[in-house]
């Protein structure tokens, strides 16, 4: 039996392909809720899907506020706008936070895989000072020589895995909008899609 | 006494200017929280500042979910990424929702001003069917002839006014990050700024 790609995932792969000449096509905005109940929103980088699933991978720093947010309330909504094709994907779901203290060896392996899949330059930022804290004038800057390329993930490295629950697709060129909702029946996941007004 | 522009506002005006050749430079992502406590995130269009203030204007449809969200919990965070200059502004604050039933005549005037400042084409979308509801096949499409250009705002037209409370500026080219926080002392508003680690 062949694998059928979920309709929204196919649309998203098409958009990634059509916008791949733009560096920022893999950037999207991730909204979370802070422990004090305030909305938070920041740009993050799409690191691909987890193997053949619909789950979206994001690398982040354990010391960033979003980790606090997600440990407190593990739900997020992605807003991903493709500037060349005028398409928007809003993807909400729950997020699994995988840091080095995770008890599941399979998840630790996924984190390690994500670490080695990222460039030496992006690995380097996890060795830098605590993000968001006051910047000290005489902070030593890290250079790539301080990082052994074969060394595994550093403590600050965290993998986020967003498992989509609903996807809202909007095409501003054709003025079409489709809502995709996950349905679970008899332990089988399927997706309903519905054309809605833009 | 001359008016001094708030430092973060000047940075934002500079970014808007440097990225003005890109249609999407006035688009940003607005995160809110739904009445059921879930994060929501969507792209909206920057409609300028309210007169000489720091308040950010957004036009929207009264029938969209964000109105429900904001009526329930009037806080939002903007994430605005400028794709050419690699700058990000995260702007949080509380949001005033101004629809046609507002009791304040000054606010109604602001709503009217926003209506007439928007193009006939964008006014037309407020005459369309309820956004997000199932799309009917034989829906009549609105054409510009159905709208009198001198007529005031239709019922579905809503003005959002976001009053910034904190601004986080990140420059990915220079790797600099600055946090701006509003301070109120003796009924005077001032802004603190601090360099923080990216």
TrEMBL record, chains A, B:
Task: Note the InterPro entries from the entry.
Answer: Pyridox_Oxase (IPR000659), Pyridox_Oxase_Alr4036_FMN-bd (IPR024624), Split_barrel_FMN-bd (IPR012349)
What EC identifiers does the entry list?
1.4.3.5
- GO MF annotations, alphabetized: FMN binding; pyridoxamine phosphate oxidase activity
Pathway stated in the Swiss-Prot or TrEMBL entry: Cofactor metabolism; pyridoxal 5'-phosphate salvage; pyridoxal 5'-phosphate from pyridoxine 5'-phosphate: step 1/1; Cofactor metabolism; pyridoxal 5'-phosphate salvage; pyridoxal 5'-phosphate from pyridoxamine 5'-phosphate: step 1/1
For this protein, the record's Gene3D superfamilies field holds: Electron Transport, Fmn-binding Protein, Chain A
- On whether Transcription is a keyword of this UniProt record, the answer is no
- The lineage's top-level taxon is Eukaryota
Pyridoxamine 5'-phosphate oxidase Alr4036 family FMN-binding domain boundaries: 6-98
Q: Which cofactor does it need?
A: FMN
State one Pfam family annotation. Pyridox_oxase_2
Which UniProt keywords are listed? Flavoprotein, FMN, Oxidoreductase
GO term, biological process aspect, one: pyridoxine biosynthetic process
The name on file for this protein is: pyridoxal 5'-phosphate synthase
- Name its species: Artemisia annua (Sweet wormwood)
């Amino acid at each position: 039996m062949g694998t059928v790609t979920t309709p929204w995932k196919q649309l998203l792969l098409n958009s990634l392909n059509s916008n791949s000449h733009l560096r920022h096509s893999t950037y999207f905005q991730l909204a979370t809720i802070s422990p004090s109940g305030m909305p938070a929103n920041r740009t993050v980088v799409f690191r691909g899907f987890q193997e053949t699933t619909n789950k979206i991978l994001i690398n982040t720093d354990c010391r960033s506020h979003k980790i606090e947010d997600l440990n407190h309330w593990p739900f997020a909504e992605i807003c991903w706008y493709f500037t060349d094709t005028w398409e928007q994907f809003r993807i909400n779901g729950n997020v699994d936070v995988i840091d080095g203290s995770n008890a599941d060896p399979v998840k630790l392996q996924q984190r390690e895989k994500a670490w080695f899949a990222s460039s030496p330059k992006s690995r380097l930022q996890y060795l830098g000072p605590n993000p968001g804290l006051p910047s000290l004038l005489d902070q030593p800057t890290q250079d790539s020589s301080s990082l052994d390329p074969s060394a595994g993930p550093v403590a600050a490295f965290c993998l986020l895995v967003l498992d989509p629950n609903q996807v809202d697709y909007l095409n501003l060129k054709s003025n079409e909008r489709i809502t995709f909702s996950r349905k679970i029946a008899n332990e089988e996941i399927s997706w309903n899609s519905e054309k809605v007004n833009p």
